[in-house]
């Protein structure tokens, strides 16, 4: 993000296990990471102390107001293997998300067929199977009160998991409404990938099957979805700042700036079709004055989209889309 060019990592450096399933805890004594490396069922823990002395092979984390910075990169703190999930499923990626609440860890399934809970103190695993687990592939997980909401990629419904009773409810009334907007050639695509954001009690979602915007109120599980008026567009990730949404394309070629109140949007960047299935960018984040998009394969570059001073003027000046009046509406609870 400092815009300094760096060489592409070597083949040896890329052998480091991929971490999809990870939880971060910030404590007074430092940062604690919980994770399950890809292609394993091992629950691991790594503690990074605050202001740890740079001695031997130890690397530390410094607070923002600490002027003392490490001058060289050393090997990180020791990783402890805490437990192995007794899962009979064998896959490259069994779990897509890890959530820590109190002394318990919750693993959201990807290749696995259920939700795993691990009690750290008692060293006990429990599992809650999902109905129709042949397609239990989840995307993102969000905590709200005593519940975990697991938004699906392929599973036909949002999984609502009660962390106190370990009971599961499937919120699936929205599925038929969303499917009615899907073109025939996109039936097998995921419902959602990473274009899901939480703001308080609300989940906001942009589909990777079609140009549908969905909202879920986690206080009462009421949902609504609408076509965004962007025919042929589908999305893999998004950055949401109030009513403004930057949408990364899924099997498309344009990054869209969209306003979820005005229901207007326009393309702000057109990609070159050089990536598999034309999904050139996977993740995005808000840097404040710009949106940063991370490419699927080009590890030595980032896309920086500067934010204009007046987003409304910029949008309406070059607006596209048919507006809210042309959007089909479906609602449910």
Q: Bin the helical content.
A: under 10%
Low-confidence stretches: 54-65, 67-74, 319-331
Gap from first CA to last CA: 42 Å
Strand order, biggest sheet?
Answer: 13-14-15-16-24
User: What percent of residues are in strands?
Assistant: 35-45%
Biggest sheet record:
5 strands, antiparallel
Number of strands: 24
H/E series, N to C? EEEEEEEEEEEEHEEEEEEEEEEEHE
- Look at the structure and give the mean pLDDT: 82
Shape: globular
How many DSSP H or I helices?
A: 2
What Rg, in angstroms, do the CA atoms define?
Answer: 21 Å
Given the helix and strand composition, which structural class is it? Answer: mainly beta
Description:
- This protein has two helices and 24 strands.
- By secondary structure, the protein is mainly beta.
- It is globular.
